[in-house]
Design a protein that fits this description.
Helix content is about 40%, strand content about 20%. The protein is α/β, with parallel strands linked by helices. The strands form two sheets. A five-stranded parallel β-sheet has the order 2-3-1-4-5, with helices on both faces. The longest helix has 21 residues, at about 225-245.
């Protein structure tokens, strides 16, 4: 069923790694007028949705499911299929974070991991294996490794503050440096390390891709304009097809070595070109200050 053609209730299944921010996400969504049910066994999802009287003003439901009950993936998939047959739009939102970040959060909070292995690291490994199949089928992945609670609120507000069945596609563009690791929660990744690196130009080294001299240097580099034109054409082809399948949020990663120069300049230029097509685009530079 095309989500754009129905005003039926929407069910967001919020899940993911323990320590990645599920509880914070649930509170944020509740503030956005979603009805939230926490810690629901997957086998009870269909029954809970059928039994829950969702007010018209708060017709969207959030179900938070974690790994404490073993998280039988097949039970969840069966429940989602059954709900979609009833015309209820369902989406899986998966929260993730780097293992080292999760370990640090548990150590700071001095709380045990719900899986209760001998070490926090051992629990994370076991949980990641348990959730791997669910992460693969998630509609939205949010990596909270570099997000504080205010940035997480901004991300969820951007994703879910309006009715997803009627709003236009939103595109998020993120520049980053490969030496700091690739983002987990992106749909399309482009590597711009083929462009000349301003790091090796003495007068540009200490500047950033948002500075005019670096931007001009990168955009005038051989291959930059052709790359931007080809990506622009690709997105013009893909975005309407994503929308027709009910996708309302597209995350694009632009990577270079350190995330200071090339990826920043290209990401900003790509945002400009996408916006010129009437598509809502926003850019964030993950590693610009590292």
């Amino acid at each position: 069923m095309d989500p754009a053609a129905t005003d039926a209730p929407q069910v967001l299944v919020v899940t993911g790694m323990s320590g990645a921010g599920r509880s914070s996400a649930a509170k944020i969504l509740e503030d956005l007028d979603f009805t939230v049910i926490d810690n629901l066994p997957p086998a009870l999802l269909e029954l809970a949705v059928q039994a829950h009287d969702i007010p018209e003003a708060r017709k969207h439901l959030v179900v938070v499911i974690d790994s404490r009950g073993g998280l039988p993936i097949q039970d969840l998939q069966d429940a989602l299929i059954a709900l979609e047959r009833e015309g209820i739009v369902t989406k899986i939102v998966f929260l993730d974070a780097d293992d080292s970040v999760i370990v640090r959060r548990y150590e700071e909070n001095r709380r045990p991991h719900p899986l209760g292995r001998d070490t926090i690291s051992g629990s994370i490994v076991a949980e990641r294996e348990m959730l791997s199949g669910l992460r693969e089928v998630a509609d939205v992945i949010v990596d909270t490794s570099n997000l504080n609670v205010h940035e997480l609120r901004e991300r969820f507000t951007s994703l879910f503050s309006e009715d997803e069945t009627t709003r236009p596609m939103r595109v998020s563009i993120r520049s980053f440096g490969f030496k700091h690791g690739s983002p987990r929660d992106i749909d399309l990744l482009f590597d711009v390390r083929f462009l000349p690196n301003p790091h090796w130009v003495s007068e540009l080294k200490d500047l950033r891709g948002v500075d005019e001299p670096v931007r001009d240097y990168v955009l005038a580099s051989e291959g930059a304009e052709e790359f931007l034109e080809r990506v622009d054409e690709l997105l013009a082809f893909l975005i309407p097809r994503f929308q027709s399948e009910g996708k309302s949020y597209l995350s694009i990663g632009i990577g270079c070595t350190g995330g200071h120069h090339r990826s920043v300049a290209i990401a900003k230029e790509l945002e400009k070109r996408i916006s010129e097509h009437g598509i809502r685009a926003a850019v964030r530079h993950r590693d610009i200050d590292r």
